[in-house]
Amino acid sequence: MTVDWADGHRTQYKAVSLRWMCPCAFCRGEAGTPGWLDSMPTLTAEQTQLVALKLIGQYALAPTWADGHDTGYYTFEALRRGCTCETCAADRQPAIASTQATEEIQ
Predict the structure, then answer these.
(1) Strands (E) located in 1-106
(2) How many CA atoms lie within 13 A of 103 on its CB side?
(3) Which domain holds residue 49?
(4) Which of 54, 59, 99, 105 has minimal CB crowding within 10 Å?
(5) Is 2 in contact with 12 (CB distance < 8 Å)?
(6) 90: how many CB neighbours lie within 10 A of its CB?
(7) Does residue 29 form part of some domain?
(8) Alpha-carbon distance 31 to 80, whole Å?
């Protein structure tokens, strides 16, 4: 899946990576209970085959996977945070370094 962002940036997501990013309660857990993805399952071909994608309002995308899973709403904010390109990864590094320096000072 490819997302062309308003600022001209383009992000390409592999289906496997998207499935691992699933934010739904089943995959991520809820109320202190770990989600299914926390068990580090081996994903099947059906679980990583994207069969449909719909827009949710103006804030998220909802994929449907070949195994029928369709409850994860991927916000555009989360998708952008999940961009793994070199530019975005480099942009995140100063924020991580700043957080670590602040923790060391305290």
Answers:
(1) 2-4, 10-12, 29-30, 33-34, 50-56, 60-65, 74-75
(2) 6
(3) 7-105
(4) 105
(5) yes
(6) 9
(7) yes
(8) 26
Compute the distance between CA of residue 55 and CA of residue 45 in angstroms, rounded to an integer.
24
pTM score, whole prediction:
0.77
Find the CATH number of the domain harbouring 13. 3.30.2020.30
Long-range contacts, stretch 59-65, CB < 8 angstroms, 24+ apart: 63/1, 63/18, 65/19
Per-residue pLDDT of the chain (106 residues; tens, 9 = 90+): 999 999 999 999 999 999 999 999 999 999 999 999 989 999 999 999 999 999 999 999 999 999 999 999 999 999 999 888 888 888 877 655 444 444 555 5
Which candidate, 85, 91, 61, places its Cα nearest to that of 75?
Answer: 61
Give the closest residue to 23 by CA, choosing from 67, 66, 76.
76
